[in-house]
Amino acid sequence: MSISNGVNVEQLGEAVEAITEDSDVGQFQFRARTKWTDSLQCVTKIDDFDQAGQTITTQEFTVEGDEPEQILGERTAPNAVELLLAALGSCLSVGYAANAAAMGIELNELRFDLTGDVDLRGFLGISEDVRAGYDSVTCTVHIDADASEEELAELRERVESTSPLMDNIANQVTLETDLVVN
Which of 111, 113, 139, 39 is nearest to 79 (CA)? Predict the structure, then answer.
């Protein structure tokens, strides 16, 4: 068994092979259930997901959300746009670790500094000329690895071209909403 960066390279290869042979194996549906709790606070529960049409039950995760006091929250948890930065950092971390392992690059240190600029005039409906979400997001990757600059550039290119969160942020995603009145 070959482990690189904590990733089982053999299993990674087997997963790629299985999805290559049967695209259904790579079909996932993830779910989250968010409930408003009080004020500007909410709790999101994440537990099961579907793979190839089959429900996979896992442990339950809880993610809390709130707003800073300056936006009428109590700052008991990160707000949604901060959680988006965390999700992007998590996705990039997975991408770098797995791709580095597949390329035979040992990581000594990997860290992401992410920032996003939001103008609340869009969120508050004050100006139609200002977007409601991030105007821009910046990510600085700090990496220490046993690889040449060319190899690290190839690693970066692989990660950036296959990151689901980078894709979701950079490209329009179809979003459907339904309103159910109880």
Answer: 39
DSSP string covering 29-84: EE--EEEEEETTEEEEEE--EEETTEEE----EEEEE---GGGT---SS--HHHHH
For 66-112, the pLDDT digits (tens) are 999 999 999 999 999 999 999 999 999 999 999 999 999 999 999 99
Our measurement of the distance from residue 153's CA atom to the centroid of its chain's CA atoms, rounded to an integer in Å, reads: 21
At CA 32, angle to CA 53 and CA 111, rounded to 5?
105
Separation CA 3–CA 11 (nearest Å): 10
pLDDT digits (tens, 9 = 90+) for 71-81: 999 999 999 99
In order of their start, the domains of the chain are 25-77 (no CATH), 79-171 (3.30.300.20)
